[in-house]
């Protein structure tokens, strides 16, 4: 048994005196290893652990085997070369306070918990003399977390950094007046019940209004009652559906008066501290309906004899830092929003229109300040060098993706014809070079088409399309990726603090789950501590064109981690890049604005650089903008669901071709490919057989027949019920179940697991 480690550990867990007495065969216990890793997240690589415990020779081999065993048991997870306790809470996390312990200490759970089982409990510490609002039960807070020393109490302690604005118990709904005069609240959340409103609590609401209501305590009989607190808008107007998501997700959408006032007095940037690039024919290439343009591109062959076949690619990005300084009203509001939110019927911008659509938008033929990067690539697509510049530019042309592509494909118009040979063809030649580098790098290549909703003038759905993926899109994407890499490299080289865009490799648990699934299709995924995107690409290539192509793409996607922002770099797994930072969209992402400020400070490019006060907050800022990004994604997804459900509400009882997009014990989620809409088929409606859930194969199959349904199966369904404002649809399965390979084997496993579970559970479901 190894000696006990007392207190918090920093570096070597033993004192010098202790180390002098330790025999050569000293080996730490499992608990000591786990404790050290939990308390030293920044020094948890295999070499650092070996050094901390003074392990050498055969002991290092023993350590490698022990760490692998702890990973296999699910006690440790590995992120690149660093180990952490499974289910560990990030050092800065968003927490929900849910109660107090016997001593009155506030207790919280992480708002998001990716691990299995119950989320860890965090004891909230309140610093004496702390200023600002005091947190309480029901609050959501941003906090720094620390592993707790007492194994009998909560796993972590937390120190509150910020208390988010409180939400009342109010819920959203649509006010409806029924034919008999009854007043009802139609739910806008799928699990929210319908409510009744008495006339004295109508508060001026009219039929079709989106309202905020306070539910009353439910009565024993009938629907629960509610009173209207506020009328938020009418659903008979345009842009009403996105208003539901805006309010449901607490997205700030009205700029305060001081922010508007500050934006209105901003003066255009001057030539001071800038190079004059106005004669360089930079062009913007964006969607046809884009209202702001924050990136422009240009390319030319490299004339250096030492770089035959090489190219010079230039990317210029709107200089938002010239107008938005740290800790101003504009800056505080931008950080609060974190990013712009894009709905089919509107955009909720991060910055006021005076900044985003005017002063910072790289308009054709107008002087605009920018931060540009000039990058030199070899003929093989390897970046040789780059340099950043603070410039004044003038866009030569504003182009749409299809317009630029058509010119390259031999159909130029009046705008593209004059710049075809001088601007567009050199851009495409440069893209060919950059693509060689991308192909050699082998980022993750998932084939998942994106759908776009086109609306009528009244805000309802006209049709859903899948835009063609053009080389013009890929060109801009690769130019932006390389600019982002250059920004991260420059800031790292100058030792300037920054916020990285990080994307972790799939967790060991997700890797194993994917591996088990692929085995059901006679496909294999090699084991290894260092997974690479190329290993997933080889799987995707093997199923290209096969019946299960969509299924495998979907499962590989679900095995991936979620990208986020962090001042600590672990690389970007999906892009297969060691360092990556968002630099190219400061109009719509706060992360990019931070990177711009860092470049200005690191390279001495004038005013507007990153301040020390801002650098000290990067951990907090990264957590905030990661949360606002997830909030935006959820709101955008909910809005699309509601628009499509409303569009299909008139087609109840119609049949549709569908694809199974999710499998659970409760039933099947299906997606209508032509609409991008999702709905649910309860397992109880699938037929007379008893259906069993096979988690490994992502399937439901009959106990008696062994036939069933699997993720990504193409099926025919009938639309049975629609709740438009909740974005919910229920379907009926019309396709007969099919034989599923391996289902009986999986069934015996399921029975075994059920018996094991029952042996651990006592009366009324209590664990013994």
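Sequence proposed for the structure above (768 residues):
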């Amino acid at each position: 048994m190894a000696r006990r480690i007392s207190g918090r550990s920093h570096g070597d867990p033993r004192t010098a005196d202790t180390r002098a007495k330790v025999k050569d065969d000293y080996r730490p216990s499992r608990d000591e290893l786990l404790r050290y890793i939990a308390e030293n997240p920044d020094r948890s690589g295999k070499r650092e652990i070996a050094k901390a415990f003074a392990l050498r020779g055969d002991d290092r081999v023993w350590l490698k085997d022990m760490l692998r065993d702890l990973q296999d048991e699910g006690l440790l997870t590995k992120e690149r070369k660093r180990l952490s306790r499974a289910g560990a809470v990030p050092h800065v996390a968003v927490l929900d306070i849910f109660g107090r312990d016997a001593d009155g200490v506030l207790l919280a759970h992480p708002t998001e918990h990716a691990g299995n089982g119950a989320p860890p409990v965090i004891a909230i510490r309140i610093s004496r003399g702390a200023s600002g609002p005091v947190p309480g039960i029901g609050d959501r807070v941003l906090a720094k977390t620390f592993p707790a020393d007492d194994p009998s109490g909560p796993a972590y302690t937390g120190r509150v950094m910020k208390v988010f604005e409180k939400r009342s118990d109010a819920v959203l709904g649509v006010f409806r007046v029924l034919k008999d005069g009854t007043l009802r609240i139609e739910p806008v959340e799928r699990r929210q019940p319908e409510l009744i409103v008495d006339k004295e609590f109508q508060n001026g609401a009219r039929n079709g209004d989106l309202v905020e209501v306070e539910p009353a305590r439910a009565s024993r009989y009938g629907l629960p009652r509610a009173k209207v607190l506020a009328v938020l808008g009418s659903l008979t107007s345009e842009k009403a559906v996105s208003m539901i998501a805006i309010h449901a997700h607490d997205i700030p959408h009205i700029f305060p008066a001081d922010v508007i006032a500050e934006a209105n007095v901003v003066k255009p940037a001057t030539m001071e501290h800038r190079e004059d690039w106005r004669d360089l024919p930079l062009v913007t290439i964006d969607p046809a309906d884009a209202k702001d343009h924050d990136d422009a591109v240009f390319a030319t062959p490299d004339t250096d004899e030492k770089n035959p076949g090489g190219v010079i690619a230039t990317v210029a990005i709107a200089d938002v830092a010239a107008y938005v300084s740290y800790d101003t009203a504009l800056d505080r509001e931008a950080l609060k929003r974190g990013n712009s939110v894009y709905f089919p019927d509107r955009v909720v911008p991060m910055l006021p229109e005076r900044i985003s659509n005017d002063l910072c938008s790289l308009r054709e033929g107008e002087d605009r300040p920018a931060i540009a990067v000039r990058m030199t690539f070899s003929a093989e697509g390897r970046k040789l060098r780059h340099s950043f510049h603070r410039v004044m530019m003038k866009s030569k042309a504003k182009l749409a993706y299809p317009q630029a592509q058509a010119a390259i494909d031999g159909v130029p118009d009046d705008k593209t014809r004059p710049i075809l040979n001088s601007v567009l063809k050199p851009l495409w030649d440069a893209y060919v070079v950059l693509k060689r580098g991308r192909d050699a790098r082998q980022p993750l290549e998932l084939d998942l088409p994106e759908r776009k909703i086109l609306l009528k003038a009244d805000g309802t759905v006209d049709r859903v399309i899948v835009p063609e993926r053009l080389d013009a899109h890929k060109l801009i994407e690769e130019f932006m990726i390389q600019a982002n890499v250059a920004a991260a490299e420059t800031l790292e080289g100058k030792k300037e603090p920054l916020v990285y865009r990080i994307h972790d490799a799939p967790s060991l648990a997700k890797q194993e789950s994917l591996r088990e699934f692929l085995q059901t299709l006679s496909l294999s995924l090699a084991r290894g501590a260092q997974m690479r995107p190329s290993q997933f690409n080889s799987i995707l290539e093997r199923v290209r064109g096969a019946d299960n192509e969509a299924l495998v793409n979907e499962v590989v996607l679900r095995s991936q981690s979620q990208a986020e922002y962090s001042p600590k770099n672990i690389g970007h797994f999906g892009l297969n890049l060691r360092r990556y930072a968002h630099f190219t969209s400061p109009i719509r992402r706060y992360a990019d604005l931070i990177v711009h400020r860092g470049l200005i400070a690191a390279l001495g490019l004038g005013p507007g650089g990153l301040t020390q006060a801002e650098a000290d907050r990067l951990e907090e800022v990264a957590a905030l903008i990661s949360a606002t990004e997830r909030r935006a994604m959820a709101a955008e997804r909910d809005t699309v669901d509601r628009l499509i459900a409303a569009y299909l509400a008139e087609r109840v009882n119609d049949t549709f071709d569908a694809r199974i997009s999710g499998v659970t014990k409760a039933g099947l989620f299906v997606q209508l490919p032509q609409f991008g809409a999702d709905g649910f088929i309860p397992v109880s409606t699938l037929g007379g057989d008893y259906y069993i859930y096979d988690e490994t194969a992502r399937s439901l199959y009959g106990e008696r027949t062994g036939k069933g349904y699997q993720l990504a199966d193409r099926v025919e369904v009938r639309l049975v019920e629609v709740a438009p404002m909740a974005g919910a649809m229920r379907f009926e399965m019309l396709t007969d179940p099919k034989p599923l390979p391996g289902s009986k084997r999986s069934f015996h496993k399921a029975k075994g697991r059920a018996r094991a579970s029952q042996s651990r559970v006592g009366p009324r479901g209590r664990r013994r």
